[in-house]
Structures are given as structure tokens and as C-alpha cells.
UniProtKB/TrEMBL annotation:
A Gene Ontology cellular-component term: transmembrane transporter complex
Family: Belongs to the ABC transporter superfamily. Macrolide exporter (TC 3.A.1.122) family.
Protein name: ABC transporter ATP-binding protein YtrE
Superkingdom as given in the UniProt entry: Bacteria
Taxonomic source organism: Acinetobacter bouvetii
Amino acid sequence: MTHVNSDHSIMPQVIISAQQLTQKIPLAQKQLSIFENLSFEIYRGEQVAITGRSGSGKSTLLGILATLDQASSGKLTVCGQSIAELNEEQRALVRLQHIGFVFQSFQLLPHLSTVENVMLPLRLQPNFNFAAAEQKALALLKKVGLEQQAQQTPKVLSGGEQQRVAIARALISNPQIIFADEPTGNLDAQTAQEIEQLLFQLNREFGTTLVLVTHDANLAQQCQRHFELVNGHCIEHGQGEG
């Protein structure tokens, strides 16, 4: 995605702005630096991959960008909100209103049906309406190809089917951003490819910004932008680079 609209020369909307983000963990005698002074912007509707070796801080960075954790220092703005100025309750509201999550381990509730799992984020909203939520959940299950499994529980679903449920759940609140942490990590190669295609298809269809952590170089290459964490620093690769 180019950052200048050639027709109107208008800069696209920044949806995440990180300035000098630093994360350090206090140890007995010193501090362990996970990363230091990371600065970048992510634009509305983009597909962004974050890669790096195990222990490089990928998931830590994702957690901070998703407002689940706080950086040691630096400034983070998400959907127009300066995150450091918010308390935990206010950060939770940002997540509820603007953010969806897809995890490697799916994180579905085993005692709930597929459609009930998809509806869960809406139950947290003050204006929850069961009939409307169920209708929306069923429509999303149809989009991910699981309308026939709406009343089944996760234990009878394959890994790929469970991840499709998780993607539908992530979309039900109409989030501006979806954060995906190793979304294909527990899947076989063919199923992983199907989930990748689904994520990108829904990203285009819903206009949702997609930020994902992955070990999969092929998945990272398919994203419009690719950040790699190396020795505590963020390197942005050009499109098509490994």
C-alpha cells in the first residue's frame, strides 16, 4: 500500500502510531531490554506482518500495540487514543470498541456452541441484543464457511474450523484493527494457506487493519508491509523481501 494517494495526494489515516517504544524487564541486578526506541506508523486497512527469531519480542510488541500490555517508555496512539494516558478500564474500552484478536491456540470456550463463541464480544457491550447478535454471528459463520456447524461445540471441529470460528469472533464487533498472533501456527500447511487467504479476503472486504505476528516467511511476504525485530530494533522490509 502506498502512503500517498496518487489521485488526491492525501496521506492515508494513521491508525497506530508508535514513537520511541521501549520495553525493559527488571531482573535482579539489571534490566533486560526486549526492544528499544521503536518508531513506526500503521495505516488504516493495511496488512502488516511482524517477524523475528524466537525471543525477539514479537508477541510482546503485539501485546503492547493491542493495549494488553504497556511499554516501559515511549508513546503509543491507537485509533486516536493516547494509550499511556488511559487507565486499565479505558484501555479495555478501546479493545472492546476497536480491536479484534485471533490467537494461535484459538481460545474458544469449549462449553459454548460455535455461534455462542462468535457472539461473545457482543455480550460485553452495554446494548447487547441476543437476537441481533445471533443473526450477525450466523452471517459471519456463513462468510467463513461454517454455517452448518453453528450449533456444534469446538471439540468436534478441526483446527482449521476452530480458527475460522475465532476469525468470525474477531470480526463481530466491527473492529478497526485485528491483531493475529501466529494465526496459522497450529495448522497443517494446506489449512494454514486456507486461513491465510481467508484473513486477507476479510481484510479487504471489511477494510479492517490486519497486524499479525508470524514465523511464516510466506505469510509475511503476502502482507503489504513487513517489520522484522532484530536485536531490539525494527527493520522494515520492502514488499516481496524475505
